[in-house]
Every structure is written in structure tokens, then in C-alpha cells.
Amino acid sequence: MFGLFKKKTEVEKLQKTFKKLMKEWHTLSSLNRAESDKKFEEAEAIAKQIEILKNETV
Prior knowledge:
This protein is an all-alpha fold.
């Protein structure tokens, strides 16, 4: 209940997006390889952004 009004950090938002993209990538991997590769590239870009933000806070 205490976290009810807590705002998400940029890293948390990116991690949620990353998780969604990886799920879509996995689903598409058996259906459409080209679209699957695009989703994976998007997820990699998000992962790099997460790493940059994590390194800035340290």
C-alpha cells in the first residue's frame, strides 16, 4: 500500500518495456523471423539505455 503512489523511475519504465519486447520477440520467433529480429534489436537498444542509466547513478 505504501508503494501505491510511488512514481516509477526511468529504469523501471525501461525494464517494463524491455520485458514486453522480449515477450513479443519470443512469440514472433516461431512465426516471423524478420519481425522477431526487429523486436530483438529494439530490446537490445532498451537494454543499452538501462545500462547507461544504471552507470550514471553509481
